[in-house]
Design a protein that fits this description.
Keywords: Coiled coil, Cytoplasm. The chain has helices at 2-90, 97-111, 113-125, 132-347, 350-355, 358-377, 394-405, and strands at 379-381, 388-390. Helix content is 91%, strand content 1%. Strand 1 and strand 2 (388-390) form a beta hairpin.
């Protein structure tokens, strides 16, 4: 009982320590998550400011590049106008046509692909024969080409003007956006300064709280370590005790298992014997069943035979009854005859008897004695119970047959 109480106390102490540790760890995790959240918000604000600065710098670079491009376009247009004026003055001269054509080729090649095609045509016509007609045709063609070039230059100038107006609008828009950005940055910086000052205060407070919590946590951890050491020692002792108890229990269980194994062996032997007995009984029952089936078959056969015999006997009885009735009728007839003859003999006078010879008397006596002896010696049987009656008692037999057969 004391060991059980100590083990329960240790288990409850472990649960209490684990619950306190979980509470402290959960509070520290919550504070750590809150600090991470504040740091993430600050990093997001710094990232937004950095993005705004990068955008302003990109806009400035775009503006500078557009200005440079615009200056380059102005220089190109000025040089093209100067060259066109120089070409118009050089038409009066007849000897420097080839040099001007070469200059026009180089200038048109820089302007567009169509000018390149025209330059190819002029280059093909440069190798024509130097007669007067060829020179006039080449001059007319050059004039036509110069007109085309002037028209193209006008179109390019209009396009440059429109582009300059578009670029100026973009620059104005960029300047307005820069102003808006500067104002927004100033307002943001002011808010950021105020927020940053508040955040610094909060961070300082959080840092102090964090340090206090850390000190508390360290103290709690040291106490918990001590408690854990004690619990570890108690656990070691409990483990040793449990090992001893387990060893004893194991020995007891081993002995019980051996006893159970012996019982199982006995039960298996008994079950094997029972199975053998059951098999033998089953075989005996099967044999008996087969014998009973054979007996039943034999009895059925005997029943059929006996029923057939009965039918035959009934037929024989009916036949015998008919024969007996016939015999009885014949007996009655013979009896009537005998009675008639006896009556006649009695009615006859004695003289007649005396007058008769002795041979006739002896014959009549012999006939009557033979008839009576025949009736006494012959027996009739009942077909039901096989009772014997003499032929002279046929009336008794008739009454008996009526009772027995009914």
């Amino acid at each position: 009982m004391a060991e059980m109480a100590s083990s329960k106390y240790k288990v409850s102490l472990k649960k209490k320590l684990s619950s306190e540790l979980s509470v402290v760890v959960s509070s520290l995790r919550k504070e750590r998550g809150h600090l991470k959240q504040t740091l993430a918000e600050l990093s997001c604000q710094h990232a937004q400011l950095y993005r705004l600065v990068e955008r302003v710098l990109s806009l400035e670079t775009v503006r500078q590049g557009s200005c440079q491009h615009h200056e380059v376009k102005d220089q190109r247009t000025a040089s093209a106008s100067e060259r066109c004026s120089e070409r118009g003055g050089s038409l009066a001269e007849g000897g420097g046509i080839t040099c001007e054509v070469e200059q026009l080729r180089s200038q048109i090649a820089n302007m567009s692909a169509r000018c390149q095609r025209l330059e190819k045509k002029v280059a093909g016509k440069k190798y024509l024969m130097p007669n007067s007609q060829g020179s006039t045709t080449s001059v007319e063609e050059l004039q036509h080409l110069l007109r085309d070039a002037l028209e193209k230059n006008k179109h390019w100038l209009e396009y440059d003007q429109h582009r300059e107006a578009y670029v100026r609008g973009i620059l104005d828009r960029m300047l307005w956006l820069e102003k808006q950005l500067n104002e927004a940055n100033q307002a943001r910086s002011m808010e950021h300064k105020e927020d940053h000052s508040d955040e610094k205060k909060e961070l300082v407070e959080m840092q102090e709280l964090y340090e206090t919590f850390l000190h508390k946590a360290k103290d709690d951890l040291e106490e918990l370590r001590k408690e854990v050491d004690l619990t570890h020692k108690s656990l070691v002792e409990m483990r040793e005790m449990s090992l001893l108890e387990d060893h004893c229990c194991f020995e007891n269980e081993d002995q019980q298992l051996r006893e159970l194994q012996c019982r199982l062996d006995v039960v298996k032997r008994r079950s094997a014997n029972y199975e053998l007995q059951a098999n033998l009984i089953q075989k005996c029952m099967l044999n008996r069943h087969h014998e009973d089936q054979e007996r039943i078959a034999d009895l059925e056969r005997q029943m059929k035979i006996s029923s057939q015999d009965l039918e035959d006997e009934k037929q024989d009885c009916s036949y015998l009854k008919k024969q007996m009735i016939r015999v009885l009728k014949t007996l009655q007839k013979t009896k009537k005859r005998v009675t008639k003859e006896s009556k006649r003999e009695q009615e006859d006078p004695p003289s007649c008897e005396e007058a008769q010879p002795p041979s006739q008397l002896s014959r009549q006596n012999v006939a009557s004695s033979s008839c009576s002896s025949f009736l006494n010696e012959s027996f009739l049987e009942c077909p039901g119970c096989l009772a014997e009656y003499p032929a002279s008692h046929y009336r008794e037999l008739m009454n008996h047959m009526e009772i027995c057969l009914d």
